[in-house]
């Protein structure tokens, strides 16, 4: 708990002076003011996050947190739990979609076992296993409060190491069969939305399975009675280890004034947990895409963020976050590489 407290204590607001400087520079460039829209907003935000007018994101690292879920025994997914392990090996062998997209944007991929049910042996794997999967949240708490804290602190440790080694843009992704169930449960607790508005088809369940999934979440909320004003209680009772890990990555990066890409439903649930622990964290998050999961846009509304992309994606792994890295780098290129009106006039006069 000490690491979590220390991390939260380091979190500060954005540098408003640098943001004003960024706005002034953008308005002085060879374009109509505001004509590059959200790219300009990102450039301003990056200046506030990093306290650097000419921020760079040339060392991108994407973190995939992997953990299993006891609730899969309730039939909330069409995919067996063993696929979590299989996909982790696929990530490590660079055969997954997130690997292909990360290679395209020049991002390293870090795979973290924070709660996979089986043991995975690989020198490439970062092992921060809190426990081999959560308990079945339909029958009781998914984990203890101490385990919830441990999952968050594991994420803080992972991102601290990455930043110490030069990372200046962090992506967040996950792997864990059944993890849309706890994510939807977290959103339901934090809003007055119905289960019809917060629960989706996940990896492709049918209508009957969707009905069952909603019933399981309703049962979990009744059994556990999570306290809506207590992030750790919510995470412990109906969350996931990878959700806690991602929340820790967000908090740790924020404490180090490093921007973080938010991905889909699971990453959004982690952001809600992190926001409840420290509201300032959302200022350091950069939204990537809108998932087809119905609750995802509601998460953005709670976070006060607006996604850049709408690609009808629902794969997970942080694929949307990696795609968004391209746009973040584009924002830095604008403020770093474009000429101001004054500079362009001088060069034009020289040429004349």
Question: Topology, please?
Answer:
Elements lengths: L1 H9 L5 H13 L8 H14 L9 E8 L14 H11 L4 H9 L1 E9 L10 E2 L17 H20 L4 E7 L4 H11 L4 H4 L8 H18 L6 H8 L2 H15 L4 E3 L2 H13 L7 E3 L8 H8 L15 H19 L3 H11 L1
Parallel strand pairs: 1-2, 1-4, 2-3, 4-5, 5-6
Give the class-level CATH name of the largest domain: Alpha Beta
Largest sheet: 6 strands, parallel
How do the SSEs run, as a string of H and E? HHHEHHEEHEHHHHHEHEHHH
**In angstroms, what is the radius of gyration?**
20 Å
Bin the helical content. 40-55%
**What's the structural domain tally?**
2
- Given as residue ranges, the uncertain stretches (5+ residues, pLDDT < 50) are none
Mean pLDDT metric? 96
Write down the overall geometry.
Answer: globular
Can you walk through the features of this model?
It is a single chain. This protein has 352 residues and is of the alpha/beta class. The chain has two domains: 2-54 and 335-351, Nicotinate-nucleotide-dimethylbenzimidazole phosphoribosyltransferase (CobT), small domain (5,6-Dimethylbenzimidazole Phosphoribosyltransferase, Chain: A, domain 1); 60-326, Nicotinate-nucleotide-dimethylbenzimidazole phosphoribosyltransferase (CobT), large domain (Rossmann fold, 3-Layer(aba) Sandwich). Helices cover 52% and strands 9% of the residues. The protein is built from 15 helices and six strands. It has a six-stranded parallel β-sheet with strand order 3-2-1-4-5-6, with helices on both faces. Strand 5 (260-262), helix 12 (265-277) and strand 6 (285-287) form a beta-alpha-beta unit. Helix 1 (2-10) packs across helix 11 (241-255), helix 6 (145-164) packs across helix 11 and helix 11 (241-255) packs across helix 12 (265-277). The longest helix has 20 residues, at 145-164. It is globular. The model has no long low-confidence stretch (mean pLDDT 96). GO terms for molecular function: nicotinate-nucleotide-dimethylbenzimidazole phosphoribosyltransferase activity. Pathway: Nucleoside biosynthesis; alpha-ribazole biosynthesis; alpha-ribazole from 5,6-dimethylbenzimidazole: step 1/2. It is an enzyme of class 2 (transferase).
